[in-house]
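Case 366 in the screening queue. Each case pairs one protein sequence with one candidate compound; here the compound is nicotinamide-adenine-dinucleotide. For every case the pipeline is the same: read the inputs, emit a complex structure as tokens, and attach any notable structural observations.

Predict complex for case 366.
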Amino acid sequence: MPDLHPQRILVTGGAGFIGSNLVYFLIDELGAEVANIDKLTYAGNLASLERVMQNPRHQFHRVDICDRPALRAVFEAVRPEAVLHLAAESHVDRSIESPGDFIQTNVVGTFCLLEETRHYWASLPAAEKETFRFLGVSTDEVYGSLGPTGKFTEQTPYDPSSPYSASKAGADHLLRAYHRTYGLPTLVTNCSNNYGPYQFPEKLIPLMILNALAGKPLPVYGKGENVRDWLYVGDHVRALWTVLTRGAVGETYNIGGNEERKNLEVVTTICHELETLRPRGAGSYDALITFVKDRPGHDFRYAIDAGKLERELEWKPKRSFEAGIRETVSWYLQNDEWVRSTTNSECRSWTESHYSNRAPLAPRLE
Ligand code: NAD
Ligand code: TYD
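Case 366 output:
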């Protein structure tokens, strides 16, 4: 099948971190028309979409993906050629404290979206049915935890550890089942940890940048030896477009940055970037590092083998971790107003109470 060129695209979760980066990519780089469905939970922020809120190529719909009548109305009004599904509850620590929202949005919400997509797809003329695509954005966390060696491939069995990853695994299974059972043209991507502009400051990298700037402790779980494979969000959204337009339906593609780092290394890299860009004066930023009680069920290591995507669809990450972190730290330094738009919300109070309950394990050794 030749490459597809969908122009009317329905994005879910487009007011979140990856979603807003994706919306900008679709509009700025491809000139696409985007209908953006988002419930605006604590993690959704219209300030992340400021540049396109008045753009006629972008329509925002405040809709919960569990609301089937509202989804049906959007499908009828927009008549999309493709769906990129990102809406989710996405933070592991929150899923440990209150898993119910994760099951509701990630499993039940994905089911509702698939049902409404199937209803709409069944009504399309044959040629449009053939080229329609539904891409579900998932995580490498569905594969569980790695030891010191090896990488996740698309053949790695699912073995999720947290309520978050278990709910994403459920969503992935539904997408594949809808392809096998109903022929709905679904694809699944499983990516590693993303970072970059517009990420909510509850995830490791933005939390560390903003805490450091505020002179607050930098809470590293356990000994900081857990490893993540970091993917710059701009590389990720390019990969999503590649899979959507060139991937084989029913297939899964892993997306990774090939940039493994121990958490402690990530935090010290951020501290060193900050020393260069905004010197602290009162001692170095890494004096703020505080080792805290570990996350229950904390997966030791994630690492993605993205060979299938590279070989079959010719995608490669472009941004090195060092360049991506430098850009990300600068972005947070230059976007005070966006940072304030997140710090006023319910999220900040959750983050603060979460961390105030985590007593430091031991003072940092200088
Ligand atoms: P995010 O938390 O920043 O954004 C999620 C968005 O979904 C928010 O705008 C929120 O308002 C919206 N949302 C939540 N529940 C909703 C509902 N019921 N109906 C409609 N909208 C709803 O998340 P993110 O980091 O941008 O992640 C996007 C997707 O990528 C998620 O599916 C996540 O599981 C996946 N993913 C993220 C990462 C990562 O490192 N951030 C890694 C792998 C996979
Ligand atoms: P996170 O950004 O929550 O992503 P995920 O759990 O989905 O990988 O965390 C990344 C890593 O950083 C993970 O190993 C947990 C660790 N971590 C900390 O050490 N301190 C923190 O304050 C946070 C939020 C995460």
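Case 366 observations:
- Residues 8-199+232-259+298-320 form a domain with the Rossmann fold fold (CATH 3.40.50.720).
- The longest strand covers residues 133-139.
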